[in-house]
Specification:
The protein folds into 2 domains: about 1-80; about 80-170, Trna Endonuclease, Chain: A, domain 1 (3-Layer(aba) Sandwich), CATH 3.40.1350.10. α1 packs across α2 (about 20-80). It is rod-shaped, with a radius of gyration of 32 Å. It has helices at about 5-15, 20-80, 125-140, 155-165; strands spanning about 85-90, 100-110, 115-120, 145-150, 170. By secondary structure, the chain is an alpha/beta fold.
């Protein structure tokens, strides 16, 4: 049987026999589906490799943040004198976050002065009122009005304006030299 005649018979079968047509369609679709599934498996493996690399970069960044933070802490201790301590205060009234929570602050107490320091790799406008609220909470709990200070290598312009509005000094890499 010639190829043209075979094609013609198969087309007639496809047109006339619904069951045969569905079987062929299913077979073709199944084969294409397997091919697409193999492509997706390959893409999945590529994404898994990329995510693994990203995990390593995030770990590296976390490590660098720890080094940065410790370095900044050391500079602060030399600049202000005293030792930076991490203090945790219960905020039962929700002064800082709007609901009861534990609030952490970096704090120096020296010669009767209490200084709450926000040390961060970058400061956004929203960070400033948060620090201000921490100062209000600290004064309420400890009975001492703390001085508030921001230390960061990168402070957004609107964050600097917000800090100025609240009377909070901002120290960046240029002001600590």
């Amino acid at each position: 049987m010639a190829e043209a005649e075979l094609k013609s018979r198969n087309l007639k079968l496809l047109e006339g026999d619904r069951e045969f047509r569905l079987s062929v369609a299913g077979f073709v679709g199944f084969k294409e589906g397997l091919g697409r599934l193999a492509e997706h498996d390959q893409r999945f493996e590529e994404h898994a490799r990329l995510l693994n690399g990203l995990d390593l970069k995030i770990e590296d960044l976390g490590s660098k943040w720890g080094i940065f933070r410790e370095g900044m802490k050391s500079i602060v201790e030399q600049y202000f004198g005293g030792e930076v301590e991490r203090g945790i205060t219960d905020d039962e009234e929700g002064i800082v976050f709007g609901h009861p929570s534990k609030v952490e602050v970096d704090l120096i107490v020296k010669d009767g002065k209490h200084i709450i320091i926000e040390i961060n790799s970058s400061i956004r406008k929203s960070d400033v009122p948060n620090l201000f609220q921490k100062g209000i909470l600290y004064e309420k709990v400890k009975g001492v009005k703390p001085k508030l200070v921001i230390i960061s290598p990168f402070v957004e312009a609107d964050a600097r304006e917000e800090a100025e509005f609240h009377g909070i000094p901002v120290f960046t890499h240029t002001s600590l030299k």
